[in-house]
Write a structure and sequence with these properties.
With 215 residues, the protein is mostly beta strands. 0% of the residues lie in helices and 50% in strands. It starts with 6 loop residues before the first strand and ends with a strand.
Length: 215
């Protein structure tokens, strides 16, 4: 006799943190316990100009001409306005996933797509930053199977770093690239299954994602 358990597994995928590693450019970095200035400039003047929602930070009399200079290993970005560390963007197609009501004869699943773009020549890494809430037992054999209490995630796409179904855990690397990417899409499918002895109830979990790139 199968035991039917009302298990509503809600997975909330929230982009909470985008981190950037330091560039390899030639910089004059300054830091304290709370702040980090990754580059500076020597000027004879400059003001802040504001208008409504915008602020313009101008400079004058810069000590080096604007433009980039490099020797293959280092790059110098002349001019205050040239201090641009690049960008990394991430878009999550569905931030709230419901795996539905489970029974021992099925595997519940739901998918979301993470699309990343970055101009970092060394690419990016997308990983799980933190996990909180309640869930079923984590999958340990590489496959979420009906009739066994298991919960995990799988990935698909050119930059996918997951093989099979794996446990959802902090520091899990989901996708990565070693080159600049424009609109790289990776699909992540969260899966859950129950056994006849699983405890009935509602389960929910918040998964925070972290994307980082080197510039």
């Amino acid at each position: 006799m199968l035991c039917f358990c009302k298990i509503k597994l809600l997975v909330l995928v929230i982009l909470a943190l985008v981190t950037f590693s330091l560039p390899t450019n030639l910089l004059a970095a300054m830091s304290s316990a709370d702040y980090y200035i990754y580059a500076d400039t020597v000027d004879t003047g400059g003001i802040f100009s504001t208008g409504g929602d915008y602020t313009l930070d101008s400079s004058a009399g810069e000590s080096s001409p604007a433009g980039f200079s490099n020797n293959g290993t280092y790059e110098m970005r002349g001019g205050y306005q040239a201090m641009d560390r690049g960008y990394i963007n991430i878009y999550i197609s569905d931030a709230s996933l419901s795996l539905g009501t489970l029974n021992a004869a099925i595997v519940g699943s739901a998918s979301t797509v993470a699309t990343i773009s970055t101009n970092a020549s060394t690419g990016y890494v997308l990983q799980v930053g933190s996990v909180s809430g309640t869930a079923l037992a984590s999958v340990a054999d590489g496959s979420v199977t009906a009739g066994s209490e298991e919960y995990g995630v799988s990935g698909a796409g050119a930059q996918n770093s997951i093989s099979g179904d794996v446990a959802v855990a902090a520091a899990l690397i989901l996708a990565s690239s070693t080159v600049a990417i424009d609109g790289s899409a990776t699909t992540f499918t969260f899966k859950a299954a129950m056994s006849p002895s699983s405890v009935a109830g509602d389960y929910s979990q918040i998964v925070t994602l972290s994307a980082s790139a080197n510039f």
